[in-house]
Amino acid sequence: MNKIIFFFLLGITSIFAQKKHIFAEYSIGETSSADNTFIKLKASQTVGIGFGIQHNDSLNWVKHLRNPYTGVILQVANHGNTDKIGYSVSLLPYIEKPILLKNEKLKLLSAIGIAYHTKKYDFNENWQNKAISTDFTYAFRLGLYYNIFQKNNFQSRININYLHYSNGHIQWPNNGINTLALGLNITYDGFNKDSNSIEKVVSKKDIQKSKQSFISVQTGIGEHALYRFYNYRRNVYSIDFMYGKIFNKTHKVGLGVYMRNYTNNYKYIKEGNNLVSQDYPELQKNPFLNSSSIGIGLNYELLMQHVAIETEVGLTLFRPFFPAEFRLDATLINKQTGLYENGKAEGSTYTLKRFVSGKLGLKYYLFNTYKQPKNNFYVGGHIVSRLGQADYSEFTLGYIHTF
Known about the structure:
Elements (H helix, E strand, L loop, with lengths): L1 H15 E15 L12 E12 L4 H5 L4 E10 L8 E12 L7 E12 L18 E16 L2 E13 L10 E12 L22 E14 L9 E14 L3 E12 H9 L2 H6 L7 H4 L1 E13 L2 E12 L3 H8 L2 E2 L6 E2 L6 H8 E10 L9 E12 L2 E14 L1
Antiparallel strand pairs: 1-2, 1-8, 2-3, 3-4, 4-5, 5-6, 6-7, 7-8, 9-10, 9-18, 10-11, 11-12, 12-13, 13-16, 14-15, 16-17, 17-18
């Protein structure tokens, strides 16, 4: 899915852009421990090269983002223990835009893609690596870049980045790799001497005003693993209904309701395993309903013709299996006894994870959203989360009707 998304974005940049740049960067930071048995780590180090093209056309999303760059980054990360954690090699489509209205020096860069890891969890030989258990994972980065020096066609920029790697909860263990890093970026834009690369000044008057209402329905199928001792990759089925508005052909805001059913949870309840038989026998009265979740979500999409970046913050209203799921998820080894023990369904983290959900992903629309079609279809790929921790990964199909 990430390869498809990459080629879509790369195709868009080659069609509409005028100004190009390449950059190289190095950063050093700290990777947090995945759990209480995690390996000690030295400082993490990341090197990367990137290629980007600036959009200077008259589309509304380009004006809203003030002539952003889009492109791709190839990066290699050493997380501070190459014997156990190894290296991560990532390919990340990115978008970079100015933050301040009157200062082009400070920019925000966000990217999501795919990573290959040279080391992963192995019960016999690498059991301490609870961070990564699959060869490939999602890779995500979010950073601030500030221009400190510029001469001729070169820019020197300092940056601070948050880097995250996760398999989207499709296999345990999946505590993920989380790194905060400070770096230096050297950018060259000398390709533009003979091209019409003058940046356009964007003002509010340039943006074409419009507003549309919409309704949409979406179905999804995902993959999910329950916890380390019930490590089966099984399906999650979802359906979403949404109503909202599209502003200026660019900003799509909606309020929706969703229902999800987890096959792993259903089978665990149906079989009467461990915690269910001991502490939650009432779940067996209706395994299908009690393995489902229902909630509402506030959804936002940035529409870029055929491609859209989607984020969502949700409130889970119904998820009866969650207390047992949280305790299984929080299973840790007791250092005194050497035995694994289930966690407790209590505390602020438990409460927040029970109610706060999220979603991050990319969509591809069949028809150009800038032309405001009455009916449109899309496919998407998402990571669904609970308070920032991956819940499952999904592939979606949807239909939208605008008024």
